Amino acid sequence: MLFETIVVGPLGVNCFILGDKQSNEGMIVDPGADCEMVLAAVSHFGIKVKYIVNTHGHFDHIGCNRSLKEKTGAQLLAHKEDVPFLVNAARSAQKYGLTVENSPEPDAFLTDGMKLELGRRVIEVLHTPGHTQGGCCLYLANEKLLISGDTLFADSVGRTDLPGGSHEQLIQSIKTKLMPLPDDTVVWPGHGPSSTIGQERSFNPYLNE
What we know:
Blueprint: E1 2-8, E2 13-19, E3 25-29, H1 35-45, E4 48-53, H2 59-62, H3 65-72, E5 75-78, H4 83-87, H5 89-94, E6 108-109, E7 115-118, E8 121-127, E9 136-140, E10 145-149, E11 152-153, E12 156-157, H6 167-178, E13 186-189, E14 195-196, H7 197-203
Parallel strand pairs: 3-4, 4-5, 5-6, 10-13
Antiparallel strand pairs: 1-2, 2-3, 7-8, 8-9, 9-10, 11-12, 13-14
C-alpha cells in the first residue's frame, strides 16, 4: 500500500495520499493547500484519484477541494454536518488573514461505519464529533492505520472552542470509537507527529483526566 504525508499550508496540515499499488486507485485526505504540490505527488506515484476526503470542514483542511476535484475527477466526500464549513471556507479563512477557495458541496456524505474501497484496500469511516459535528476518522484495519483528523493528536486532542465544538463530546468520541482499536494502530493526525493508540491510551493527559 502507498501511504504518503505532505505537510501543506501555513497551519501545517497533514495531507495524506493513499493508494492501492495493484489497482492504482488512490485517495487524497485533507488537501488544505499547496494544490500543485499535492498533484505533483499524485502524478509521481501514478495513482488514479478515486476520492478526495475531508476529515472535517475547517478551511485549513479543504482549500484544494475545488482544484483537485476539477483536475482529477474524483468524488469529494465529507460529513453532511460540516457542509456549512466547506461552502463558507473563504469567509472563515479571511478572519485569520488567509485566502482559501470555497469548496464545492460533497458528491456523497461520509457516514459512521461506511466502507471506502481502493482496490483491495478497505477504509472504514468512524464518525467522531467534538472538534466539529461532522468530524470523522479513517481506519484501515489490515494496515493498522488510523487517520484521526483533528480529533486525536499525539499527547493531545482537538480544540473544541470553535463553532460546533464540544469537549465532552470529543472525549466521548475518542473513548468509544478510537480507544477500542488495537494498541499498535498507528495514529496519523491532522497536524503534527504520529503516535499509536496504545501510547495515547496510556499517556494522553486529556484521556486520563
